[in-house]
Write a structure and sequence with these properties.
177 residues, alpha/beta, three-stranded antiparallel beta sheet
Length: 177
Amino acid sequence: MIQREIRNEAGEQVIYDNGILQSMYPGNLAMVRGHWVHFVPWFKPREVLILGYGGGTMSKVLRSVWGEDISITGVDTQEPPFKHDKDTIVLQDALKFVQGFPNDNAFDFVMVDVYEGNKIVPFVLGDGFVKECVRLTRDIVAINLIDEPYQPKAYRRAMDLKIIKIVDRNYLYFYKK
């Protein structure tokens, strides 16, 4: 059972699930606190998919770096307590969303941050889910693997992809060949 708590810290509304930092609003501190800054792509994406939207912190960080003219679709199983007005929110399981999404190469950047508390949802580590995420992107898939076994060879072998950035063994990026 996930126990959600929203606290006021340094002028930010901070979401904790089972005591684990999940999101912050308006997200000004996210550039210096948390994992989000590690996921900012080195290019300006036009179309972004965030699987595990949470409270919209990643959207705030992307817009802070690249500007407001990014189209962002966020997928989550719960209504976000905070969101950017321009973001499109889909209330759905991330696996069902990627399996049912009809268009290949629809997004420049796919960010996977699907957790329940401090545990990654098991399907995220499966070949099928990652392959579907890669199908949806023109460029980059980034996966938050904090607290998970580090297995880059298995990912590379399973999807014929090249890992291009690894930060502290917790963040994994793939790009299409």
